[in-house]
């Protein structure tokens, strides 16, 4: 369940009204806590805003609390009108507020980020430069669909692409007058459509998972802590001795910070 409350961590009384007004316009309630209370809350699926001007949040402490929030499954945001380390930007997925004028934009980003259905809606569908179909979901995950996309796809030119009113599906019409639908839920993390031909090879998948984990700077122990999957089981997957279910693979991919399709792909 995604929280509809955003927590502000600040020791400055004047910090709260600016964020409270913006967040309430997007339907959130607001709680305010001091810098020394960061470790006392369950943060999974919860957005938290850290006031970088709080005296307790020097560079090291800011990195610590932001990393803690992300590792705990939360969505950290930093309000910093000063320079912060690049890694802080990366942990926050770019959600660093630089000025009071930027608060409204970031508040809107929180609403989109915490929308539980965003991975089941298309944000954009088009023909890619390679001629295949590019589908971008509301959570930012992108999938390149090799043609033919379905059994109905005769690979003729795509004439029109029409999103449904709720963006949960898209209809493609080809030059041959063939029409077919794609559904966003089939491409969300943890689910897979039969129209995407991705063979699951345990040895290759394990090597790919290890590569992505290392690129993310995570140890097996850290990945185990994020997912709740025992480290020896992760080791077995990476060694190619066990092929995980798609649900387990989705948990691992999400903890690493990549879409499931990236683990399954060669790119």
Structure write-up:
This protein has helices at residues 16-25, 59-71, 86-91, 103-113, 202-215, 220-227, 231-238, 246-256, 260-264; strands at residues 5-9, 29-33, 47-51, 75-79, 96-97, 122-127, 133-137, 142-145, 158-163, 169-174, 179-183. By secondary structure, it is an alpha/beta fold. The two termini are 33 Å apart.
Radius of gyration, Cα only, in angstroms? 21 Å
Number of helix segments?
A: 9
User: What does the main sheet amount to?
Assistant: 5 strands, parallel
Strand content: 15-25%
**Helix percentage:** 25-40%
Report strand order across the widest sheet: 2-1-3-4-5
List the helices and strands and how they pair.
Elements lengths: L4 E5 L6 H10 L3 E5 L13 E5 L7 H13 L3 E5 L6 H6 L4 E2 L5 H11 L8 E6 L5 E5 L4 E4 L12 E6 L5 E6 L4 E5 L18 H14 L4 H8 L3 H8 L7 H11 L3 H5 L3
Parallel strand pairs: 1-2, 1-3, 3-4, 4-5
Antiparallel strand pairs: 6-7, 7-8, 9-10, 10-11
Features:
267 residues; alpha/beta; five-stranded parallel beta sheet; three-stranded antiparallel beta sheet; 32% helix; 20% strand
Summarize the structure.
With 267 residues, the protein is of the alpha/beta class. It has helices at residues 16-25, 59-71, 86-91, 103-113, 202-215, 220-227, 231-238, 246-256, 260-264, and strands at 5-9, 29-33, 47-51, 75-79, 96-97, 122-127, 133-137, 142-145, 158-163, 169-174, 179-183. The two termini are 33 Å apart.
